[in-house]
Amino acid sequence: MVTAGLAAEAGFRINAMTVDYGQRHKREIDAARSIASSIGVHRHLVFPLDLTQIGGSALTADIAVPKSGVGEDIPVTYVPARNLIFLSLTLAWAEAIGASDLFIGVNAVDYSGYPDCRPEFIEAFASLANLATRDGTRGMPFSLHAPLQNLSKAQIALEAKRLEMDPGLSWSCYDPLPDGRACGLCDSCRLRKDGFASAGIDDTTRYAE
To answer: Does residue 208 sit within a domain?
Structure first.
């Protein structure tokens, strides 16, 4: 949400992609639709891609989502090569519609240690984008923007406030309850709650815990 808001503030026309990859937290797809509507994106593409056929993650297979707190190792909520897949789809769409600037909301400060959130990955993909595409080889380079990469969750929350965006539209929980509440205990919920608390901003998310 904040990444899209920053792109809009910078004057970009927003074409937004959400990937419906079979994740257990499908509530985030509804949130993405609400955010896209509130920002007034030019087009919002919800791309179906069933990663449950690959599995290997608590988000795409019958594996329990950890609730004991953010640890040192890469957690089982890691989806194999997810951001690489997402950026590849985004790059393909960008080339097809003549867009040259790609934005992604990865964060490498307050996060669960996913390897595809690191600056090294973003830099490598930015280089790859211009080697793997027709436009890139014809001297029409792509630029990859990750404006939240070096911000804490508190700083991201403050950016949402500055941009006058409603944080209640966004969604973080990996394991929402059937009644629509966020679990409050998964890594993503814990990081979200800590970020809002540190920023001194009210988090209107309904948590079970």
So the answer is: no
Total domains, the chain: 1
Give the SS3 label for residue 201.
coil
How many beta carbons lie within 10 A of that of residue 165, not counting itself? 18
65, 37 contact by CB (below 8 A):
no
Distance (Å) of CA 146 to CA 4, 7, 101, 181: 11, 10, 11, 29
For the whole model, what pTM was predicted? 0.94
Per residue in 48-81, pLDDT tens? Answer: 999 999 999 999 999 999 999 887 789 999 999 9
Residue among 24, 121, 26, 122 at smallest CA distance from 76: 24
To which residue do tokens 């989806």 refer? 79
204 belongs to a structural domain? no
Q: Which domain holds residue 91?
A: 2-199
Sign, CA torsion 43/98/49/118? negative
Domain assignment of residue 206, yes or no: no
The CATH number of whichever domain residue 79 belongs to comes to 3.40.50.620
In a domain, 205, yes or no: no
Q: Are 113 and 121 in contact (CB under 8 A)?
A: no
Identify the CA nearest to 111 among candidates 195, 191, 57, 25: 191
